[in-house]
Design goal:
This protein is α/β, with parallel strands linked by helices. The protein has eight helices and ten strands. The chain is rod-shaped.
C-alpha cells in the first residue's frame, strides 16, 4: 500500500539509516558439529529479508534558495556571487536544471545558494518547469525572491511577487512560510522608478527586507550578500523534513515459536521456529533427517502433536514439506 510517508531524511554528514532490514545470515555445517557428528552434511540457510518499495528523492542541500519568474536574473546573480557557471541568455527558461554555488560575503562567511528554473502562474498544476524543482529549495533556510524592476517586459513586480508566493504555497505550506528577502533586480536598466516604489510599498506592507541590486553590474550585491550572511547566523538549523514513520529494526531472539493446528485432517506446524528449522534441513540426507527428528522432539513439537491427537499414518506438514507420522 502506497503511503507517501517519509521514513528517512539523509541530510547530515555521515548519516546512516536502516530503512529495511535484510535477513539474518545462516550458519555453516561446522556450527552443527558435535563430538559424535564431526562433519555434518547440513547447514542453515539465511533468513528472508523484508520487501518494501521505496521512492528515493534527491533534494539539494543549500542554505539559500533563489525563486522568481523566468528571466528575472537569478542565474546572473548566481554567477556573480559564486563560481557556478549557469547558462545565461535573454529569454525565458534559459535555466532548465537546478544550479548550486558556494557564495562568500565580504566578511568571509560562506553558504550555498540554489537557483531553480523560473516558475510561472499555474506551476502547481504542472505548467512550466519550476514546480518540479521546488523540492531542491525545501531544505533552504532563506529565500531570495528576485523580482525584475526594469520594466523592459512590461511586468508588474507586485503581481509577480504574489503569483510566485501563491504557487509556492500550493506546493508546500511550510516552504511558503520560510523567511524571504525581496530583491529588486535589473536596476541598471530600470526605465521608471515607479516599479521600485511599488516594491517598497509591498515590502513595508508584508514586513520584508528589500534590496536594490543589479546582478549584471554588481551594484548592491555585496550589501545584499553581507545581509544574507547575517540572517543565516540568526536562523537556526532545523530538520526541515519531518520523518513521519521512523522504523527501528532489531534482531529478534531465537525463540522456539511455533503453532500446531489441524486443517482438513492434516496437522500443520508453522511459525518462526519452523522456518528456521526447515532452512537447515536437507530431507535428502539421512544424517540431516536424524537431526530434524531430534529437533522436533527437543523443541516440544512432538509432544504438542501428540496432545493434538496425531496418530500413525496421519499427514504432518512443516511449511511445504508433507510427512507421514510414524511412532
Amino acid at each position: 500500500m502506497k503511503t507517501n510517508k517519509v521514513v528517512a531524511d539523509l541530510s547530515k554528514e555521515g548519516q546512516v539509516e536502516l530503512v529495511i532490514p535484510g535477513g539474518r545470515g545462516g550458519k555453516g555445517n561446522s556450527h552443527f558439529a558435535t563430538s559424535t557428528r564431526q562433519a555434518p552434511r547440513f547447514s542453515q540457510d539465511g533468513e528472508k529479508g523484508l520487501e518494501k518499495e521505496l521512492i528515493l528523492e534527491l533534494k539539494m542541500l543549500a542554505d539559500v534558495g533563489l525563486v522568481g519568474f523566468p528571466n528575472v536574473g537569478k542565474s546572473t546573480f548566481l554567477s556573480k556571487v559564486t563560481s557556478a557557471k549557469p547558462k545565461i541568455a535573454d529569454y525565458h527558461f534559459t535555466t532548465i536544471i537546478p544550479n548550486l554555488g558556494v557564495a562568500k560575503s565580504i566578511h568571509g562567511d560562506s553558504f550555498v545558494i540554489a537557483d531553480i528554473p523560473g516558475m510561472i502562474e499555474g506551476a502547481s498544476q504542472g505548467v512550466g518547469l519550476g514546480m518540479q524543482f521546488l523540492r531542491h529549495v525545501e531544505r533552504t533556510r532563506l529565500l531570495l525572491h528576485v523580482v525584475d524592476v526594469s520594466g523592459v517586459e512590461g511586468r508588474n513586480p507586485v503581481e509577480d511577487f504574489y503569483t510566485i508566493n501563491e504557487e509556492i504555497k500550493q506546493y508546500s505550506e511550510k516552504l511558503s512560510k520560510r523567511k524571504q528577502i525581496l530583491v529588486a533586480n535589473k536596476i541598471d536598466v530600470m526605465q521608471e522608478e515607479k516599479n521600485y516604489q511599488k516594491l517598497e510599498e509591498l515590502a513595508k506592507k508584508e514586513g520584508l527586507e528589500l534590496y536594490k541590486i543589479s546582478a549584471a553590474t554588481g551594484e548592491g550585491v555585496d550589501q545584499l550578500m553581507a545581509r544574507v550572511a547575517e540572517v543565516l547566523k540568526e536562523l537556526p538549523k532545523e530538520d526541515l523534513i519531518e520523518v513521519e514513520e521512523r522504523m527501528v529494526y532489531t534482531l529478534e531472539e531465537d525463540k522456539d515459536e511455533f503453532e500446531v493446528r489441524i486443517e482438513e485432517g492434516d496437522y500443520i506446524v508453522d511459525g518462526p521456529a519452523i522456518e528456521r528449522l526447515m532452512g537447515r534441513v536437507n530431507i535428502q540426507d539421512n544424517e540431516s533427517m536424524h537431526y530434524f527428528q531430534k529437533c522436533i522432539k527437543d523443541m516440544g513439537i512432538e509432544a504438542k502433536l501428540k496432545a493434538k491427537g496425531v496418530k500413525e499414518g496421519d499427514t504432518v506438514r512443516f511449511l511445504d514439506w508433507h510427512f507421514e507420522w510414524y511412532e
